[in-house]
């Protein structure tokens, strides 16, 4: 039995053009019927349009303003609570405050039009008829949600995320996750991706793997126990999923986190050095870099190149870990020591973060990247003449002469970080997502790819030097504006590297050459 009814006391229609402040003296239902504007109340500002509804209690202040050429038309329905004489204390029916989201807003607008204006009619039946209409209106308002359906759905996803963080086990299917929110699988998946940037299953897997990482490092649990704890019924399935997610097996993940580790490096030497890891061996191809001087003193060569290892020397060194790339010699290396295989195709910063995360040196990597970006900003200020106007920059490796040369489309320091402008053909190639990082170009096309500033690499062998000197005397070379303006910069093969130590050195080279 109800203990309280609401009695209609008046309706008002306002056409608001400029800013307007209304003091609320009675309970008020406010409905926007025309125009577009904003409502400010309870320290919250809301942009409004026809169909938006608000409930305000006595003592509140509401500011309204039109945001269009047309007035903002607002209907206000005022009412008072009337206690019903029953045993006990009357209970105030639950009335929300602020914006509400009725299910049948069109009917509410229709009812407001029927109720306005409120008049004292002689016909008691007419008065009662209006009372009944108002009761329907107030019932629809009382039933209204305090948030719209989409907001409720997002809140359901938020609640699920909180539950997943606290969940003991994470053994869920997509349908089960959707059922937890009360949404259809399709609607749930869309909202989840919009909210987190990932699919539900990918997010759940990341949660599982991060929890597994923590337990691998902080507990003495077996692989089988950890698998069961995060919702895997099969430890082999867990190990396979863990490797897919991190790039390494659970056992290698633990191994990589050793504070002291003897590493043989067949790639990513600059990344390891920047992370404070000096390897016990590396191929000559990696060690022969002027940027590494002072970092690799005493490190023996264990191969001629990154793909031609000296297996006997590696075995003699008894490494704890071997680092390779793209699967090169993975099977042979794995017989000597646990082997970390990192894809070379990963973008530099992603690759560096991955190696740092796997070796437990994320904070070291982040500190380096902050230092590097500060260096980039400093260099951009010094090189501002290159960034003004239409000045363009090219990077060539003069290999393939006399028939061809190599143009580089991806030079991280120049294009990605310093954001220097490439010539039109290079820019066109960069805009193709599947473009190669370099390409052989016929020599007669040299002028098309040469920018106002030209960075070139000439290999140090006698034949490469002879071929380039011959090119310097040719018309192809002499007609280039960069040559005529003295804006050609001859670099070493160290500029072909992309790793933290080399990139910092390349930026300093630019400062010395042009700054």
From TrEMBL:
Coiled coil: none annotated. It holds the Pfam family HTH_18. Residues 158-256 form the HTH araC/xylS-type domain. It is found in: Cell envelope. It comes from Paenibacillus taichungensis. Its main location: other. The keyword Signal applies. The keyword Transcription regulation applies. Keywords: DNA-binding, Signal, Transcription, Transcription regulation, Transport. This is Helix-turn-helix domain-containing protein.
């Amino acid at each position: 039995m109800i203990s309280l009814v609401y009695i209609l006391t008046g309706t008002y229609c306002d056409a608001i053009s400029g800013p307007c402040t209304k003091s609320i003296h009675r309970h008020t239902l406010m409905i926007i019927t025309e125009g577009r504007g904003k409502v400010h109340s309870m320290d919250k500002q809301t942009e409004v349009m026809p169909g938006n509804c608000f409930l305000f209690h006595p003592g509140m202040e509401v500011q309204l303003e039109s945001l269009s050429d047309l007035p903002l038309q607002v209907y206000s329905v005022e009412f008072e609570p009337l206690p019903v004489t029953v045993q006990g204390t009357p209970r105030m029916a639950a009335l929300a405050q602020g914006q509400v989201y009725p299910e049948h807003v069109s009917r509410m607008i229709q009812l407001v039009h029927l109720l306005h204006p409120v008049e004292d009619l002689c016909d008691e039946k007419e008065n009662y008829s209006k009372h009944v209409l108002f009761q329907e209106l107030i019932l629809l308002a009382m039933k209204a949600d305090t948030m719209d359906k989409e907001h409720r759905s997002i809140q359901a996803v938020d609640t699920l995320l909180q539950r997943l963080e606290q969940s003991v086990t994470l053994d869920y299917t997509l349908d089960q996750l959707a059922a937890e929110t009360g949404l259809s699988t399709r609607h749930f998946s869309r909202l989840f991706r919009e909210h987190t940037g990932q699919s539900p299953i990918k997010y759940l897997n990341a949660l599982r793997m991060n929890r597994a990482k923590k337990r691998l490092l902080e507990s003495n649990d077996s692989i089988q126990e950890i698998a069961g704890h995060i919702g895997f019924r099969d430890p082999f399935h867990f190990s396979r999923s863990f490797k897919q997610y991190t790039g390494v097996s659970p056992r290698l993940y633990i191994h990589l986190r050793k504070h002291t580790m003897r590493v043989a490096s067949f790639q990513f030497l600059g990344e390891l050095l920047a992370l404070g890891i000096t390897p016990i061996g590396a191929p000559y191809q990696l060690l022969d870099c002027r940027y590494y001087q002072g970092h690799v003193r005493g490190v023996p060569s264990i191969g001629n190149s990154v793909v031609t290892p000296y297996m006997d020397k590696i075995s003699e060194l008894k490494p704890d870990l071997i680092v390779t790339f793209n699967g090169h010699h993975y099977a042979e290396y794995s017989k000597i020591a646990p082997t970390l295989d990192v894809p070379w195709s990963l973008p530099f910063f992603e690759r560096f973060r991955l190696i740092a995360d796997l070796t437990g040196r994320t904070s070291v990597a982040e500190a380096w990247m902050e230092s590097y970006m500060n260096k980039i900003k400093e260099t951009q200020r010094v090189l501002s003449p290159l960034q003004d106007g239409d000045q363009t920059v090219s990077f060539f490796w003069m290999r393939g002469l006399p028939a061809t040369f190599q143009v580089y489309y991806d030079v991280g320091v120049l294009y990605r970080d310093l954001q220097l402008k490439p010539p039109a053909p290079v820019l066109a190639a960069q805009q193709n997502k599947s473009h190669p990082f370099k390409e052989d170009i016929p020599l007669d096309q040299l002028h098309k790819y040469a920018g106002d500033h030209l960075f070139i690499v000439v290999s140090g062998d006698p034949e490469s030097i002879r071929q380039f000197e011959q090119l310097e005397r040719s018309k192809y070379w002499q007609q280039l504006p960069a040559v005529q303006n003295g804006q050609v910069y001859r670099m070493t093969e160290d500029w072909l590297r992309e790793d933290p130590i080399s990139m910092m050195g390349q930026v300093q080279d630019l400062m010395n050459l042009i700054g």
